[in-house]
Amino acid sequence: MKGLYKDKWKSTHRLRPSLGHRNNAITVCSLFVLVGVFVSVMFLLVACRLNLYMFSGQQALKFQTKMDQNFPLECLAWNQTLSCPKNYPTTHTNLDRSQANTCPDYFRWIYEDLRHWRATGITRDMVEIAKQSAHFRLIVLDGKLYVEKFRKSIQTRDLFTLWGFQQLLRLYPGRIPDLELMFDCDDRPVYNIKQYFRRPNPGPPPLFKYCSDPLSLDIVLPDWSFWGWAETNQKPWEVTLKDIKEGNKKVKWKDRAPFAYWRGNPSVSNVRADLIKCNVTNSNVDWGTRLFIQDWINESVHGYKNSNIEDQCTYRYKIYIEGWSWSVSEKYIMACDSPTLYITPRYYTFFARGMTPLEHFWPIRNTDMCKSLKFAVEWGNNHTSKAQEIGEASSRFIQEDMKMGYIYDYMLHLLTEYAKLLKFKPTIPPNAVEVCSESMACLADGKWRQFMEESLVRYPTNAIPCSMPPPYDPSTVKAIIDNKTRAIKQVEMWEDEYWKNQN
Ligand SMILES: *[C@@H]1O[C@H](CO)[C@@H](O)[C@H](O)[C@H]1NC(C)=O
Ligand SMILES: *[C@@H]1O[C@H](CO)[C@@H](O)[C@H](O)[C@H]1NC(C)=O
Ligand SMILES: *[C@@H]1O[C@H](CO)[C@@H](O)[C@H](O)[C@H]1NC(C)=O
Ligand SMILES: *[C@@H]1O[C@H](CO)[C@@H](O)[C@H](O)[C@H]1NC(C)=O
Ligand SMILES: *[C@@H]1O[C@H](CO)[C@@H](O)[C@H](O)[C@H]1NC(C)=O
Fold first, then answer.
1. 205-258 confidence digits (pLDDT tens)
2. Which chain regions cross the lipid bilayer (predicted)?
3. Are both 397 and 413 inside the same structural domain?
4. Does a structural domain hold residue 73?
5. If DSSP states are collapsed to H, E and C, what string results for 2-27?
6. How far is the CA of 268 from the centre of ligand 2 (A)?
7. Domain that holds residue 389
8. Which one of 9, 71, 121, 203 has the fewest beta carbons within 10 angstroms of its own beta carbon?
9. To 10 degrees, the CA torsion angle through 274, 279, 281, 283?
10. Which ligand 4 atom sits nearest the alpha carbon of residue 383?
């Protein structure tokens, strides 16, 4: 008898995905009735009850959570009242602690990014200096989000960044501490470390950005594209990750074209203009590269036929090169199962510091790039299993350590650590407005609206955030940097030897 219930329970759960997650117990029960022709109605009712009851544990609990709590956008109400809905949970409860885990190692750089303020804390004066460069001030107070806008950002970076913060609040209601921060949506880091530690400077300004470099104070957070980049048809990260995983299956690594692939806009930086010179058509030598210019305007006219990330995993090697600063393409390139030929960067994103040369990517010089690329491609084609290993390691890093849950956890932990340092009580300035998902999405249309719907957090998670690993001690930070430098030097030595023998 019990075995029969178990089978029923399994088939119920197998049916669930096609029903979507908004179904409820009643739908499932009626399906039982339709499908189970040979079982009596009475029996089914009992079985159904027992499902939720006997085999309870996690599955049934999740099931109920989803049934009770689902908060789609309330645009009708918002249109009429222009006020944010009041029914969303304000506390993070019903927690399932069985999945507790430690955050990936790259989270430990959070402490490094905040170390400049460890001794002094963060004063209001420091925050106000950062205003000079900010697009908006973000305020979290009693679990609600407010924004004071200073200027318009490029495209809709500011909108999607705010959307990301808002979704974080929906995922972990009540868990984000009160805070005020300044956010700059432009590309390059702003505040040089040295400049702000000389007297009579009032102290280092904390400014949040998408990338930084080792000479700058700027604190890094995930960029807008994790929630979608409508202007380039780049879907929200959770959707993209699945697409890339599927795309990777299309062509096995060994069957991929044995060249290094890049597609992008070369006119944004000198180093990219140099890269294009390495293309087989622009040179007498085949450097093992296949490079293509991305014309975003033409792409938008032709429905982005050539810009599907998941269709770009057909070459054995992929090149990552910075543009005006870091490039959003980094995470997509590194997820292809093909080793990334990573041209020596200047900037880092919040996750890049978690990756190691020769383990997650192959380092490429930014001077004499063509020779460096040719060597890398030839080396990989000679050492296919090692090359495949590197490609798989970066894919695993991107698929596992950077799944959307960890993106939110990174934001949560960074904001929590930041808020601990604040020496003043956050307040809502007169020009600030409350933001909620409705105030952003209900007025949006087209891709903007679609991406917001797709990345909307519909109910609070019942999972607890991953727990922060301890800070690195200074000698470990040094060892990590030394190890990376050593790996890069090693490749450069191989390369030099190879080219010496060619001449
Ligand atoms: C809300 O108002 C906007 C603009 O007036 C409109 O485009 C949208 O369709 C409305 N949404 C609903 C659900 O009524
Ligand atoms: C690079 O070479 C490939 C293959 O010959 C060619 O199709 C492509 O158009 C070239 N790209 C540029 C930017 O010249
Ligand atoms: C524009 O895109 C279409 C479709 O992908 C392509 O066939 C065409 O060659 C492109 N035109 C230019 C000028 O790049
Ligand atoms: C790859 O193998 C060929 C043939 O053994 C050899 O001539 C070449 O130097 C090798 N290249 C590299 C980069 O290992
Ligand atoms: C540095 O590399 C050495 C040798 O490969 C290794 O044993 C050590 O754990 C590495 N240190 C760090 C901090 O990664």
1. 999 999 999 999 999 999 999 999 998 899 999 999 999 999 999 999 999 999
2. 24-46
3. no
4. no
5. HHHHHHHHHHHHHHHHHHCCCCCHHH
6. 18
7. 232-348+352-401
8. 121
9. 60
10. 14
